[in-house]
Design a protein that fits this description.
The complex is a heterodimer of chains A (173) and B (436). Chain A is mainly alpha-helical and 173 residues long. In chain A, 71% of the residues lie in helices and 7% in strands. Chain A has one domain. In chain A, helix 1 packs antiparallel against helix 3. Classes of the chains: A mainly alpha (173), B alpha+beta (436).
């Protein structure tokens, strides 16, 4: 069993079956597109594809796998909207890379760590998206710390619950 | 070198993937300003094709369950609601009479100025099955696409007001750009003040009316309509209501608008797949009152006071004196428009003389070249007649076929009145016959 050692602790690396690898991100994309029809504020505060990216990246603990997971999920998310393709792709790529790199160094199995990591990466994602949208695509974007933190907290809370559900699909390598 | 590549392998791949995406973004920005989904249509089809079938199935299942419950299980209060709706229909019918008279008049006036009208000739009902899932891209997906005749830039609306326009039409689904998206723009005007502006969405999802000068007075609560200037939405569709007016920047007002359609809870929408532009004609869909037909067929009916509010009753009462006021005095002064005059041309057209007045055997005001009363323009006398006869809606009948025009109306009493009106009751001067 390949094991990464960090500060003397054993950090386990997980893998996922192909149906889970494809199905969970698709389900997240589907839910993100469908739930706002019934609960319009959902899209304002929650970003399920981002949570799934963070989960897979942290569980695999492989930066390359993490960045590709982020890139694919982000690009698919962009395809459903009407803005330029690549905005979420770039942001999720960075988040995927960061989350998997962090996963190598930290134990992110407990709820507290997951909460903080998700909150932090939500803000990173928002900042990268904001920068690319303003700087490259010339989109009118307003940065709001209040909204960022509130949405980050909401995502972190949902993320902790979601990660425990998704933990059931983990397979030890 | 190899060790450097190995050590920074992850970072190099990250930079490479980011570079490719930035390159892709730059290409899109160059092609379509970054917001033209048509330039990346082929790629988007994959995502849309993967997601929308699930959405469509779920919406179908949800609707099926909802319909089962509402149509078969939960019928409490339906009887009372039915009663209420019937009352409402009666009220609406009364209102419709008034409006149809106004509309007929408007059509006549439009004819005079050769006005070109835009009609909504065909719409397709569609179900909203999904959204973009992001508050930065306010779009929804509907379950109708190119296969159903939906094309790019078609208007999308609900019964309450406009919703947006078709951004991309795929084979069986379409993406709709909502009016609350910051990249949308709709030509709009204020209902009372007739000020025109551009309706735009903001980054926060609000809808604002731009380009209204700050020295204009815009009251809160005023209705906003489409102006038709964008060539997408026909003129006069409800857009929303003004909720806040403030001084903006660059000499323009900052007007916030609450959309008439509930954009956050859309379920069914209509796509305007076909609209026509045609010359206004006054005879379109105009219905003539029964009394007016009598007036045509009884050329010698003498004038009656305008207080005869129930022409149908007059008709059944014997028809001798049955010509309602509007049918004679008002009618003759009706339109000089030949199109308007057409329906009445045959019924009494037995005369051989050439002048319109001479065609009338009695020499009364029942000029065959003149439209029936319902078609008449708005002479002073006719106005009061129309308003008073409003409750007599059921007595309206469709325009009769000219060929079936006997001198005696079916159902009229056998004793027909002979022309009794004196010849001097001829039509008023042409100057008065202007509908205006």
């Amino acid at each position: 069993m390949p094991i990464t050692y960090t500060s003397g602790e054993q950090v386990e690396v997980y893998r996922f079956s192909i149906p889970v690898t494809i199905g969970i991100p698709l389900l997240a994309l589907f839910a993100q597109a469908f739930v706002p029809l019934r609960f319009p504020r959902f899209a304002v505060y929650f970003d399920l594809p981002l949570l799934v990216t963070i989960f897979f990246a942290m569980a695999r603990r492989n930066p390359i796998a993490g960045l590709f997971t982020g890139a694919f999920i982000g690009l698919a998310q962009d395809m459903l909207g009407h803005n330029a393709i690549g905005l979420n792709g770039i942001a999720n790529t960075i988040v995927g890379y960061g989350a998997s790199s962090l996963g190598v160094k930290l134990d992110v199995e407990n709820a507290g760590a997951r909460f903080l990591v998700t909150l932090g990466f939500y803000l990173v994602h928002s900042a990268v998206y904001f920068a690319v949208a303003r700087g490259m695509v010339n989109m009118t974007q307003n940065w709001s710390w209040l909204h960022g933190i509130l949405a980050g907290l909401a995502n972190a809370t949902l993320g902790v619950a979601l990660y425990f559900l998704l933990d059931k699909f983990k397979q030890r390598t | 070198m190899e060790s450097v590549l190995g050590r920074y392998r992850n970072l190099i791949i990250l930079v490479g993937v980011l570079f490719l995406q930035v390159l892709g973004l730059a290409t899109q920005v160059k092609r379509g300003g970054g917001n033209d989904p048509e330039s990346t249509r082929l790629i988007r089809v994959w995502a849309v094709g993967a997601i929308t079938p699930f959405e469509r199935t779920l919406v179908w299942a949800q609707n099926g369950t909802g319909n089962l419950w509402h149509n078969y299980c939960y019928l409490r209060g339906v009887r009372a609601e039915n009663r209420q709706l019937k009352d409402q229909i009666e009220q609406m019918r009364l209102k419709q009479v008034r409006l149809s008279e106004d509309a007929a008049q408007a059509r006549r006036l439009q004819t005079l100025v050769a006005f070109k009208e835009q009609f909504i000739s065909r719409t397709v009902a569609a179900q909203v099955i999904g959204s973009s899932g992001s508050d930065l891209s306010r779009t929804v997906y509907i379950d109708k696409g190119e296969n159903d005749g939906v094309k790019r830039d078609m208007a999308v609306m609900t019964a309450d007001g406009i919703v947006g326009k078709i951004l991309v039409a795929y084979a069986s689904v379409s993406q709709v750009l909502l009016i609350s998206d910051q990249s949308s723009g709709v030509g709009a005007l204020l209902e009372k003040t007739r000020l025109q502006g551009v309706l735009r969405g903001t980054a926060t999802g609000e809808v604002v009316l731009e380009r209204v000068m700050s020295d204009e007075q815009v009251p809160v609560g005023e209705t906003v309509l489409t102006s038709g200037g964008d060539q997408i939405f026909p003129k006069g569709l409800p857009v929303g209501t003004v909720t806040k007016v403030a001084k903006g920047k660059d000499l323009f007002l900052d007007i916030k608008v609450r959309p008439a359609a509930n954009l956050s809870k859309l379920e069914e929408v209509l796509v305007l797949v076909e609209k026509q532009e045609r010359q206004a004609t006054a005879e379109d869909n105009v219905r003539i009152r029964a009394a007016d037909i009598l007036a045509q067929r009884l050329p010698s009916v003498p004038d009656k006071p305008a207080t005869d509010a129930n022409p149908a009753a007059s008709a059944t009462a014997g028809g001798t004196g049955g010509g309602p006021a509007g049918a004679t005095g008002g009618v003759t002064q009706g339109s000089t428009n030949p199109a308007v005059a057409k329906p009445a041309a045959k019924p009494t057209g037995g005369a051989t003389t050439t002048t319109p007045a001479a065609k009338n055997p009695s020499g009364t005001s029942n000029d065959p070249g003149v439209p029936a009363a319902g078609l008449s323009a708005k002479p002073a006398g006719a106005t009061s007649t129309v308003k008073k006869s409003a409750p007599a809606v059921p007595s309206t009948v469709p325009v009769p076929k000219p060929e079936t025009s006997p001198s005696t109306p079916a159902g009229a009493p056998p004793k027909q009145a002979e022309p009794t009106a004196p010849p001097d009751s001829s039509p008023p001067p042409a100057a008065e016959s202007s509908p205006q």
